[in-house]
């Protein structure tokens, strides 16, 4: 299989991953032929990347989800209940939120080969917000785990990440929704100050260019983690780009991102997911088939040479590097 941007160029190709709607109903099954109408439907429902089956040669590829689809579907249903309560009762149910983050923490796949896969369609604003919130919470947990946070810190970080956009249910304005979310969580004494403070500050930038003007160490660390996780998820899910491009754009932000949090981020998010077609600096084309732990830019690449498949482990092949991604 290979990972591809979903465009009309994929017409006639075989889908390599099943796509569901947010209610768990099968939308398009693995093995289906991508027609022009199917591609448009998927695009309209928020799907921008898919895995494509090419032939049996890719049987050795390792593809894993950071959060298994059935677990994610269950959590989306529960988070919808939370968000509907916010809209009707102006109240956030702590117990349900705790259940969601506890399930993510217990279910998350921390393997270097696991990734956030865009395989859920969105039918409305709340569905989209649920999927986005769970993805941001998942990535924040991965970063918090890398930073060796204890379980209490991870839970409070995860709660803030899960609810970072809860204020959008009341007002979608960028400046307003953060303070609305902060005030909403503050009403419930079960939420810690570290959680609602992170929600309040999650749009702040390290150089002081955020909406509140907070700068550097005046920004709470949880907020910095949620900020970079939010940026990344938005880039890969909304801007129709692959992870390496999203990472390049975040890198280009320079001093807007805390350098320590940036290092944590690039140490946990892998640039070239399994299935990415690449060109190495020696001119050979290949496919990324597996990752090397903590070496996010140095995966294992399979190359076809003289009718045979050779494997280049970029952890060991120090003169080789990925020069370009083939879209």
UniProtKB/TrEMBL annotation:
InterPro entries: HD/PDEase_dom, HD_domain. Residues 131-232 form the HD domain. SUPFAM superfamilies: HD-domain/PDEase-like (SSF109604). This is HD-GYP domain, c-di-GMP phosphodiesterase class II (Or its inactivated variant).
